[in-house]
Design goal:
mainly alpha; single chain; 31% helix; 160 residues; 4 helices
Amino acid sequence: YTSNPFLFFTTADGPGLAYLNGFISHHGKNGCHLYCGLKGHHKEGGPHYYSALHKPRNASVPGCDHPNIDVHDVKKCSHKEYWKNLIYILLSPNETEHKWCRLETGISKPSIFLGFDPAHILEVPECFASDIMHLLLLNIPDLLIPLWCGTVKVVLERRI
């Protein structure tokens, strides 16, 4: 008797999933762990990208000035796109080019799941699920409760 289990979905919290799927962290320009192609925005001079469908008002940071995205236009992940970008990363001739490729593709290294028999796993990146636990138990309540209570901390930028 030979057992052939099928690995349908894998999940972990955001930082843990980056070790499994080989993507950059959720703070990166292409930080979506579903590999949807959504590009993040960041404050001028700041390294932390934020995944947002709408461009922040009065923001024109080079590389982050892409237009608003309709939620219905967000792409599904594609293993063809993943492989094209992974090969691009792996063929980087030097460290500088590798860093630039990581920023542009959202991939930092090959996934450990590429070692599985393709007949027993969904293709990478389709086999990775989102971190729903933190969304429902941490992120949404942390945002909504202060909003409902009127205690949201607002960062005011100085205008010169």
